[in-house]
């Protein structure tokens, strides 16, 4: 048992005699949406580490990539007055729940371990409400990634990963010509929005991304560059197979693994999926940032809800300390496909995709090209994100023109504000 935990547990162990306490070392009920192969492996690391400290872990997975179903379940639980102890929840959502007065602070742990000194300020700010930590970050995911099957590319005569959208389209046409699905995609709103935001970054750079998808600037939303982004999305609609509708993202990753498809555009949780299947980066699959110069940030974190009882409070404190321990940040992120949230963890055991992510993250911070993901709830309130993903999905599944798309999007965003 580590010293911090020992200190935290003293009061708990003195008062935990009696029914209802599953163990003396803290209990957590953890609500999350990590149910794919790679995700389950990664969250299993957290469960194992918590149980290794004699804690009791109650698993509450709510399947559904991107977490929309999990967030609906969370709201129902909070309204019923029965919140889980810890929830995979991130970005502005943390502040939204904090303002409702339903979170517990883990600031005592954060202060005693000096989280401020080891977290990038951009993440530390997201984790705090009124100066106190109410959440702990596990990772840094990058959304603007492209995954490919090298054999499929070779069969189509594609010799390198595309660096512009025109190159992407040319490679996709070649794949199509040899009967390989160019783009493995799952037609779910959050996946459509994931591809869309990467395209916006590639067409208009961090500047357009920030103005349109973060600051919700009306001129940027209606700009010619946004029309061009929808044009590219329309082109990509032509590169997916007939069965894309409703497909889970990890099944799309499977298509790339098996060489049925050439590319997938998805955050680096897709790498967790390749790794869980025993695939080797650079050999069985390739990674490259999607065209564009920037970094679309998505960071997972656990947020601590207002629960009572020493056993639960102790569980929260232990979990917070565990999540931020350098050892856990390494093992978890090796499985998840992401890189550690802590800046002081060695990347020696990480693969080339992770190193590229880290390098590009530092460059993006330097060049002011780091942008928060809209699709993954890092940028804007959930209600406004809902307008984006609805519109993008409607566009993807209809013959709406790009001009009509920007007009409708700008109007919907204005209404929602
Ligand atoms: C993201 C989340 C990732 C991931 C993905 C697919 O929003 O941040 O951790 O696993 O959804 O479920």
Notes on the structure:
- With 417 residues, the chain is of the alpha/beta class.
- Helix 12 (224-237) packs across helix 19.
- The protein has helices at residues 3-15, 37-52, 68-79, 92-99, 107-113, 115-118, 121-127, 150-156, 165-177, 189-214, 218-221, 224-237, 249-257, 269-276, 310-323, 326-336, 352-366, 382-396, 402-416; strands at 27-32, 56-61, 86-88, 128-129, 132-133, 135-137, 139-142, 145-148, 181-183, 261-265, 286-289, 295-298, 301-304, 339-340, 370-372.
- The chain is globular, with a radius of gyration of 22 Å.
- It folds into 2 domains: 3-140 and 298-352, Periplasmic binding protein-like II (D-Maltodextrin-Binding Protein, domain 2, 3-Layer(aba) Sandwich); 142-297 and 367-416, 3-Layer(aba) Sandwich (D-Maltodextrin-Binding Protein, domain 2), CATH 3.40.190.10.
- Beta-D-galactopyranose binds at residues 33-34, 39, 65-67, 141, 249, 269, 298, 300, 376.
- This is Probable sugar-binding periplasmic protein.
């Amino acid at each position: 048992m580590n010293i911090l935990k020992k200190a935290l547990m003293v009061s708990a162990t003195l008062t935990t005699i009696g029914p209802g306490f599953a163990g003396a070392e803290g209990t957590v009920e953890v609500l999350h949406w990590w149910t794919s192969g790679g995700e389950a492996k990664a969250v299993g690391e957290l469960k194992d580490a918590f149980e290794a400290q004699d804690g009791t872990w109650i698993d509450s997975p709510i399947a559904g990539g991107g977490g929309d179903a999990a967030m609906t379940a969370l709201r129902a639980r909070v309204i019923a007055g029965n919140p889980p102890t810890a929830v995979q929840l991130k970005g502005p959502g943390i502040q939204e729940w904090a303002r409702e007065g339903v979170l517990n602070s883990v600031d005592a742990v954060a202060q005693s371990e000096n989280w401020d000194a080891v977290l990038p300020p951009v993440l530390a700010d997201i984790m705090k409400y009124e100066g106190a930590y109410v959440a702990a970050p596990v990772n840094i995911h990058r959304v603007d990634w492209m995954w490919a099957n090298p054999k499929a590319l070779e069969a189509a005569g594609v010799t390198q990963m595309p660096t512009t959208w025109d190159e992407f389209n040319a490679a996709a046409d070649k794949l199509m010509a040899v009967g390989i699905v160019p783009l493995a995609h799952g037609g779910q709103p959050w996946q459509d929005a994931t591809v869309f935001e990467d395209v916006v970054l590639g067409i208009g750079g961090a500047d357009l991304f920030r103005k349109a998808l973060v600051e919700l600037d009306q001129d940027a939303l209606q700009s010619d560059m946004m029309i061009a982004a929808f044009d590219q999305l329309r082109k990509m609609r032509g590169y997916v197979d007939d069965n894309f509708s409703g497909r889970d993202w990890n099944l799309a990753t499977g298509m790339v693994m098996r060489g049925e498809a050439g590319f997938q555009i998805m955050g680096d949780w897709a790498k967790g999926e390749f790794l869980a299947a025993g695939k080797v980066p650079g050999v069985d699959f390739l990674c490259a940032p999607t065209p564009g110069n920037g970094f679309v940030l998505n960071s997972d974190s656990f947020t601590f809800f207002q629960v009572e009882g020493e056993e639960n409070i102790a569980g929260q404190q232990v979990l917070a300390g565990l999540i931020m321990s350098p050892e856990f940040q390494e093992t978890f992120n090796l499985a998840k496909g992401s890189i550690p949230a802590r800046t002081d963890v060695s990347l020696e055991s990480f693969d080339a995709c992770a190193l590229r992510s880290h390098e590009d993250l530092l460059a993006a911070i330097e060049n002011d090209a780091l942008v928060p993901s809209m699709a993954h709830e890092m940028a804007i309130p959930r209600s406004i994100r809902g307008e984006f993903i609805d519109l993008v999905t409607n566009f993807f599944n209809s013959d709406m023109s790009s001009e009509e798309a920007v007009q409708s999007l700008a109007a919907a965003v204005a209404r929602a504000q």
